[in-house]
Design a protein that fits this description.
The complex is a heterodimer.
Chain A lengths: L5 H6 L1 E3 L4 E5 L4 E5 L4 E5 L1 H12 L3 H12 L3 H17 L4 E3 L5
Antiparallel strand pairs in A: 1-5, 2-3, 3-4
Helix pairs in contact in A: 2-3, 3-4
Chain B lengths: L1 E2 L13 E5 L2 E5 L15 E2 L18 E5 L1 H9 L6 E8 L2 E9 L3 E6 L3 E5 L5 E6 L9 H13 L3 E10 L2 E6 L6 H10 L4 E3 L2 E7 L2 E5 L5 E4 H6 L2 H6 L2 E5 L2 E5 L7 E11 L6 E3 L5 H6 L9 H16 L3 E6 L5 H11 L4
Parallel strand pairs in B: 3-5, 5-10, 12-19, 19-21
Antiparallel strand pairs in B: 1-4, 2-3, 6-7, 7-8, 8-9, 9-10, 11-12, 11-13, 11-14, 14-15, 15-19, 16-18, 17-18, 20-21
Helix pairs in contact in B: 3-8
The chains are: A alpha+beta, B alpha+beta.
C-alpha cells in the first residue's frame, strides 16, 4: 500500500518488514533488503526519521518530535516524511499498515 | 589457544594433515599440498594465547575436510536438486578466469580453467577437489579462493586486505587493486612484523570483539616490486617462485590469531597528511572491502553488515595516503612511526 497523500501516510503505521534490517553509522544509516541483497544509504536526517517512524504508532505521531528536534514546522516534516516513505516503499524497505486501534 | 586433536586413524603415510588457516581447522587428505599452509600435526591455533583475550568460537568446531575426489564431486554436482546459478564470475575480456556456481544442496562449485574445480559444501566444512589434468599449481586455488569462501560459509568475514601483526594487534591494509597492500605488508615484514595474510584476511566477530585470523603464509609481489628489492630484502621474505605474472614468497615468520588493531584504507593522493583517522567512515567503503561476493544468504548479509558496524565502532580506521614518490619502504616507516600514537 503506497500513500497517495500526506494525510493518508500520517494516519498509517509505518514498519520495517522482516526482510529488512538497518544499522546506524556515524554519518549514515544503512538499510539492507535481504530479499534483493541490496544495501541502501540514508543520511542522518532520513535515518532518524526512519527510526522515529518505526517507533511511532502512526506516521503522524512521529511528526511533533521530529519538528521539535530539527526546529522546523510540522508541515515541513510531513512533506519530508511523505517523500522519504515513497522512496522507501518503492524499494520495499518499509510497509504501511493500518494503525492499531487504540 | 592450542588444541590437541584426536590422533588420526591409519598409518602416518595415510593420515590427513592438520593445519589452520582463515580461522578454520583443516584436515587435508594425503596428496594435497596447500601452498602456504603447512601441515602442523597435533596443533590447531585458533585462539589468542593471552589472558583476557577472546578465544575463537571456531576452536570447538569440527575440522574442515579437504579431499581429492573428482568422482564424488561429479556425483554430488550432477545430483543437485536445483539448476546451478552463477553467483560470481571473474573475466579478463572474453576469458573466464574464475566462476562460482551455487546448486543446493551440493554447494558452491568454484571453477578456474587451467587449475580445476572445487566443490564447497553449503556449510563450508568440506571441500572436494578435482584438479585439471596436468595442472601443477591447481592447489593454489585453495588459499586464494576456496578457503576464504569456506570461511565465509562458516561464519567469518573475509576482507580483501593484507595484514601483519604490529604490537600484538592486527594491522590491516585495504584499498583498490594496485594500491600497494602487498608491497606495504612486505615492507613491514622486512621490519620484523609477522605476516597475517596477503590479500585476504579472515575476521571473526565474537562477543563484540574482532579477531583476525592468519591466511596462507604467502605473499605475492608484482615483478617490478620484486626487481626493486635487494637480495637481502628478498631473503627476509622467504623462498620465492614465479607464480602467474608475480613473484610468490613464502615467509617463515607468520602470525597467530590477533585482536583487531587498525584498518588502513590506502589511497593515492597528492596532498593531506599521510595518516589520518577517519571520523565518520563510509559504511559502503567497509562493505565493499569484502572478499566474498558469492554468499548472499540472509544470515551472511546481516553478518557482513554487523562486521562493518563493529569495524566502524572501533574508531581505529585510518586513511593512509600514498603520495607521489612514496615507496612501500617509506610507507612502512610511517606506519611504524605513527602506530604508537594512533
Amino acid at each position: 500500500m503506497a500513500p497517495t497523500s500526506t494525510s493518508e501516510l500520517l494516519a498509517a503505521r509505518v514498519r520495517l518488514p522482516q526482510h529488512v534490517v538497518h544499522r546506524s553509522f556515524v554519518a549514515e544509516t544503512v538499510v539492507l533488503n535481504l530479499r534483493t541483497g541490496r544495501y541502501h544509504g540514508l543520511n542522518p536526517t532520513a535515518g532518524r526519521m526512519l527510526e522515529a517512524l518505526a517507533a511511532a504508532p502512526t506516521a503522524g505521531a512521529a511528526v511533533p518530535e521530529l519538528a521539535r528536534e530539527y526546529g522546523v514546522e510540522a508541515a515541513k516534516v510531513e512533506g519530508d516524511l511523505f517523500a522519504l516513505c515513497q522512496g522507501l516503499l518503492e524499494r520495499g524497505l518499509i510497509e504501511m499498515v493500518d494503525a492499531d486501534p487504540a | 589457544m592450542q588444541i590437541q586433536p584426536e590422533a588420526p586413524a591409519g598409518s602416518a603415510r595415510e593420515r590427513a594433515a592438520r593445519s589452520t588457516a582463515f580461522g578454520l581447522s583443516l584436515e587435508v587428505d594425503p596428496g594435497i599440498e596447500i601452498p602456504g599452509i603447512p601441515d602442523a600435526p597435533g596443533v590447531c591455533d585458533l585462539g589468542i594465547p593471552a589472558p583476557g583475550r577472546p578465544v575463537s568460537a571456531l576452536a570447538s568446531q569440527p575440522p574442515t575436510r579437504v579431499r581429492l575426489d573428482p568422482q564424488e564431486l561429479e556425483r554430488r554436482w550432477s545430483s543437485a536438486e536445483h539448476t546451478p546459478g552463477r553467483v560470481r564470475e571473474l573475466r579478463d575480456g572474453e576469458t573466464v578466469l574464475l566462476s562460482v556456481e551455487l546448486a543446493p544442496p551440493a554447494g558452491y562449485l568454484l571453477h578456474a580453467p587451467g587449475f580445476g574445480r572445487i566443490l564447497i559444501a553449503p556449510d563450508g566444512t568440506e571441500l572436494i577437489c578435482d584438479p585439471e589434468p596436468g595442472s601443477s599449481q591447481w592447489s593454489a586455488l585453495l588459499p586464494a579462493q576456496a578457503l576464504p569462501l569456506a570461511a565465509t560459509l562458516q561464519g567469518l568475514e573475509v576482507l580483501h586486505a593484507s595484514g601483519v601483526v604490529l604490537g600484538g594487534r592486527a594491522a590491516l591494509f585495504a584499498g583498490p587493486p594496485g594500491a600497494g597492500k602487498s608491497s606495504l605488508a612486505a615492507a613491514l615484514l622486512r621490519r620484523g612484523a609477522p605476516l597475517l595474510s596477503d590479500d585476504t584476511v579472515a575476521l571473526e566477530l565474537r562477543d563484540g570483539a574482532l579477531i583476525a585470523h592468519p591466511g596462507a603464509a604467502l605473499l605475492q609481489l608484482q615483478a617490478a616490486e620484486h626487481e626493486r628489492l635487494s637480495a637481502r630484502e628478498r631473503a627476509v621474505l622467504g623462498a620465492a617462485e614465479a607464480f602467474l605474472s608475480k613473484q610468490r614468497y613464502s615467509p617463515s615468520v607468520t602470525a597467530s590469531p590477533a585482536p583487531f588493531g587498525e584498518l588502513f584504507l590506502l589511497e593515492r593522493s597528492t596532498h593531506g597528511p599521510p595518516v589520518e583517522r577517519i571520523e565518520a567512515v563510509d559504511p559502503f567503503a567497509l562493505l565493499a572491502s569484502t572478499f566474498n561476493l558469492s554468499v548472499r544468504t540472509p544470515e551472511r548479509l546481516v553478518r557482513h553488515l554487523d562486521l562493518a558496524v563493529a569495524l566502524a565502532a572501533t574508531e581505529r580506521i585510518y586513511r593512509l595516503r600514498v603520495q607521489p614518490g612514496m615507496d612501500a619502504t617509506r610507507l612502512a616507516e610511517i606506519v611504524h612511526e605513527r602506530l604508537p600514537e594512533l
